[in-house]
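Replying to the earlier thread about multi-chain prediction with a worked example.

Input:
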Amino acid sequence: MSTKVAERTRGGVGESVRRVDGVPKVKGQFLYGSDLWAEEMLWGYTLRSPHPHARIVSIDISRALSSTGVHAVLVASDVPGRKTYGLEIPDQPVLAIDRVRYQGEAVAVLAANDLELARRAAERITVAYEVLPAVADMEQALRSDAPNVHDFGNVLRHIRIARGDYNTPADVWVEGYYETGMQDQAMLGPESGLAIPAEDGGIDLYVATQWLHVDRDQIAPCLDLPPDKVRLHLAGIGGAFGAREDLSMHLHACLLALRTRKPVKMVYSREESFYGHVHRHPARIWMRHGATRGGMLTSVYARIVIDGGAYASSSTAVIANASTFAAGPYEVPNALVEGTAVYTNNPPCGAMRGFGAVQACVAHEAQMDKLARALRLDPVELRVKNAVSTGSVLPTGQIIRGSAPVREVIRRCAAIELPPAPSERDPLTYPGGAGNVSRGERLRRGVGFAVGYKNIAYSGGFDDSAECRVKLFSGPGGVIAEVHSAAAEVGQGVHTLLVQIAREELGIDTVVLHPADTSVGSAGSSSASRQTMMSGGAVQMACRAVRDVLFERARRAGLDRELAPDIPVAIRDGQIFAGARRVGALVEFLDEPIEQTRVYHHRKTTPLDRDGQGDPHVTFAFAAQRAVVEVDEDLGLVRVVQIAAAQDVGHALNPQSVFGQIEGGTAQGLGFALMEEIQLKDGRIRNPSFTDYLIPTILDMPPVVSVLIEEPEPGVPYGAKGAGEPSAIVSTAAILAALRDATGRELNRVPVRPDDLIGLAPPVQSSGPPPAPNVPYPEPVPKALGIL
Amino acid sequence: MLIRTNVNGEERQADVWPGTSLLSMLRDHLGLVGSKNACEQGECGSCSVWLDGELVCACLVLAAQAGGRDVRTVESLAQGDRLHPVQKAFVDAGAVQCGFCTPGLIVATADLLQHDPTPGEETIREALAGNLCRCTGYQKIIDAVRIAAECRRA
Ligand code: FES
Ligand code: FES
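Result:
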């Protein structure tokens, strides 16, 4: 019989440990980027383009420069190094060069003694524009007569995934056209940071971001500084959801600080935030599904166009995701997917929770419901029938190697108890709450179901490794482990998780976090549901390396027989155990601290080839949701009554925080289904405020009843899958399905408006998918052309 | 203009622009950054404070209007290491993610429980409808309010 290796450490893996940053956050002491302050600090401010597309004829900064309290005004020619930056493709000017390509593009920045002075001075910068015709529509962008947003054209990337013959005969065909609007991350903490010029000519930037190192790698060349002179430090982050993947105020604050030799703080207002970060791509999707009479999918055709806006951001990866997830988590032997990301003069779009899979899910789940209706099959059973499992081949040819308990996810979700039909009710619980003026005479209940999935970590051959340094030392109150990781705590709880893992691996209670900065290697981005696996893996590796050194020291100190290789060794409560026997205290072997640094890599993937074939994704997490809604058919008002959710999480390392991710992601999906859209007119944002861009309030959110499906993922730390995104992918589609069920209407566009629900607005129409552009390779166009 | 006001029991003063909000005075002049600035338009509640005991959005009140009055912020709630029951409930319930909405929600919840120590679910929802949270989906916030209410009764 094997000896018991380790008892659970308090606050270790699998427990709903309280957040490490919980107490400072509830006390109002946690410092967000917008709370930072430094002696003699100046405030930075950005002047932005009022036009979606214009030539800059001249800029006169003299009046601004001579204004009271102004220390510097900078334009493109003041950028000392590379003039452009970008996550994947450096096509975005730090400050506009001769031309602006979207409303809100940064044209000049200035620093003044306070924000009010800075705003007033900005009004005294005179920019003469020659307005150019704008490309304000994604299909217009593809037409040959459209103006070019960039000199090389308007196609950013085209993906073609071809498997089998998508025209293979089928018993039943269903077709559909779907649109999704432009969603905003609407993280509550605005873009913010503080740049402090350093003695060595370098810069220290304290900033709320998702990935310190990729920021640094974009900032350094533009400042013409070596990377080690650009030191980034993580400031407190008020939510991210993708909005902090791209640079916002980072470079501007650094430029102003280096010019004035004073600390410069920048904080966007809510309005500016709408212009200052990328959004979720609006999409147009055409689909055709074929199936046998028995309900087995035979073919999927999907044509997807997404609006990337004026600059590339991460659109190249988003279109790859939307395309590879187009068929949903279903087995289908024949598929053709054509996905195009285009440039327009709309605001740039990029990362947002769900990253292309959200838009795809809206379409493929609507198709599955259509198919169920055509076949007179139960929609849940149709999904179970076709669900992928371990070993399934996806349209890209990728074989699912990891855990894929999709059938169980679907069944467990469907088994959650439905909410009772209301009897006597408080009128406040009618759709619209206090705004409802009916007596609920025409309330209709509907139920909808959706399944979706998400890749974990970066795809397509990218090695987004994560580093972590762990130091074990003896302190005044006992043995302490210090964990140093650059992982961004955006609210998801990664810092707490790193502490839990260190406790688990090292068998001690006291684990402290070194502030996240660039003095340790990259942790990769807090996105793509990846930090649990990646930084979690890195801290586990580093802790194990520390243990190895510790045991080696113990052996050298005379415990070599007790710690023989065949005896299981464990640490708990600061003591080393060989089998069941206590052989020594950690502290005895820690005269010198032990420090180890390790880098975690996920398994290698490959990019897509010309037919969209390859092994692009590391692994997958699946989710299903069932929505119950009530629609007031007189008023077009909606109340979501309940969301039932089941999610494949591998292993919940902190169940409370996993449930929190599911609930939060669901709220964002509900917002997208019912209310959230950046309204554009001719390239201009019409609603850049929380007065006009609505996000769900506590009155809009129903109870979310969730179950976790724990089938450990082989080969990853603790078998855990990231949990941040799947709920945000499926809830929009589930609510949409429920609304269709309640109203009997087609509802092929999100967000759904009251007019759509009561038939005042017809379903969106299309004259058919646009032809695929002549781009016979999967690489992003500017890269393939060698331009950027 | 010079504003004198009592903040969390202390007499404070600040020299501000006439258009400065109470929120900006607290954050940028008095160094009390616990009240947050998510919209500065009265839409999100992240700046909730008490003005003479009444719950207000500090971004909608001019600093000048707070002159000679009593302001209480989230910073007044904990006694050293001892958290206010509402603060403790938020940590325990998992009602905090990024935490940007948290100070405002804690002030709003403490205010609710002062007026109604045993709020039902609909009352909780109505009372907190002015506080936006983008991270949690609100479920654990409702749990936290219930836990805090129970704890006050005990
Ligand atoms: S900052 Fe005051 S309500 Fe939003
Ligand atoms: S916890 Fe992030 S906004 Fe509420």
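Chain B has a mean pLDDT of 97.

Feel free to reuse this layout for your own posts.
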